[in-house]
Amino acid sequence: MNTIGIKPGSIIKLKKVHPCGEDKWEVMRVGVDFKLRCLGCNRIVWVPRRKLDKKIKKILDKNDNE
Ligand SMILES: [Zn+2]
User: Fold this and answer.
1) In 10 A of CB 52, how many CB atoms?
2) CA gap 57, 38 in Å, rounded
3) CA 19 to ligand 1 center in whole angstroms
């Protein structure tokens, strides 16, 4: 899956679950590097776009229910 369509405020799901048990992240910044905030523990990480392409499982709309 690619990262086109991801905007600041998007919620994304990654293939790998964070150690806190959460797999959803809020996108805070987009660009060459993406700034993500874990919805479980609020940890902030920066991920290069090409890495995120491989890690991402799903883009959830902000208003999507799961
Ligand atoms: Zn976490």
Assistant:
1) 21
2) 15
3) 6
Could you tell me the pTM of the whole model? 0.86
Q: Tens digit of pLDDT per residue, the chain (66 long)?
A: 778 889 999 999 999 999 999 999 999 999 999 999 999 999 999 999 999 999 999 998 765 555
Taking ligand 1, which is a single-atom ion, which protein residues have CB atoms under 5 Å away?
18, 20, 22, 38, 40-41
CA of 66 to the centre of ligand 1 (A): 18
